[in-house]
Amino acid sequence: MLIGAEILLSNWKDHKFYSLKSTLQNIYLTLLNAGIDLVLRILFYVAILMWCYNQRFFTIENVFLYWLLLFILEDIAFYFEHRIDHYCRLFWAVHVTHHSSEEFNLTTGFRSSVFQPVYRFVYFIPIALMGFHPLDIVFMYSLTQTYGILVHTQYIKKMPAWFEAVFVTPAHHRVHHASNIRYLDKNMGMCLIIWDRMFGTFQKELDEEPVIYGLTKPIKNDNDPVDLVLHEWRSMGKDLRKKTSFSNKLKYLFMPPGWSHDGSSKTANELRKEQS
């Protein structure tokens, strides 16, 4: 209903927040992600997390404390997963599809990182060991993901100051999806923005610098459904074939996106230093 309302409003106001091509891409990517997630959840996730839960270190009896701690633990786990996705190229190759759209609307929240379900459950293992039931973990993740989808909008400009100080808002998340050098790799939180403020990845949306959505290097052929998912893997493969040391080849896998041994491309932090 919200997506339909946003489509109608954006066309009525001639904002052009939606295009058929990008919306179909978002549907295609989320179906791939959901299919992989469903298969792996049935075959592996439940069994692994249940085993961890059965080895739990303690049990939280107070129901209110239980759900509050579960929310906080899942949110900070997502923050660090998201940060690694941005700062390690191997994981960025998975996550990049979520950022590849040059549009920003509610369906962008469904533009899923296709292969993320392969490793996402690892971040839930410590939570299960702390005594949180796997079904509760999945339920809480679904709630926080729903909130994460709702912040993909350009219609809400600013929330009240107290809300902006604690929670992720559309203004914060617009920054996250920007290709502006100042905004790169900022605002990683799902529900709480406090982790970004604590760990130095917060950036306010600035009136003097409008957000430019998409990637710093757009996909050459985004009409190809395979290239849409694998383009960064192919780019990484080209870098690994360069004539350089084994340690440099490892850095092409594990250093931040843009790292190069010869300076031919630069990371977000290197670009910011050049700009300052």
Percent in helix: 55-70%
* Structural Rg: 19 Å
Report, as a whole number of angstroms, the end-to-end distance: 44 Å
Q: Return the string of H and E elements.
A: HHHHHHHHHHHHH
Average residue pLDDT: 93
Overall structural class, as computed from helix and strand content, comes to mainly alpha
Low-confidence runs of at least 5 consecutive residues: none
Give the tally of structural domains: 1
**β content, as a range?**
under 5%
Helical stretch tally = 13
Mass-distribution shape:
globular
Describe the 3D structure:
There is one protein chain. By secondary structure, the protein is an all-alpha fold. Helices cover 58% and strands 0% of the residues. The model has no long low-confidence stretch (mean pLDDT 93). It is globular, with a radius of gyration of 19 Å. It has one domain. The protein is built from 13 helices and no strands. The protein starts with a helix and ends with a helix. Helix 3 packs across helix 7. The longest helix is centred in the N-terminal third of the chain and has 35 residues.
Q: Brief overview, please?
A:
The protein has 276 residues and is mainly α. It contains 13 helices and no strands. Helix 3 (63-87) packs across helix 4 and helix 4 (89-99) runs antiparallel to helix 11.
SSE layout and pairing:
Blueprint: H1 2-12, H2 20-54, H3 63-87, H4 89-99, H5 117-120, H6 125-129, H7 134-150, H8 161-166, H9 170-176, H10 194-199, H11 225-240, H12 246-254, H13 268-275
Helix pairs in contact: 3-4, 3-7, 4-11
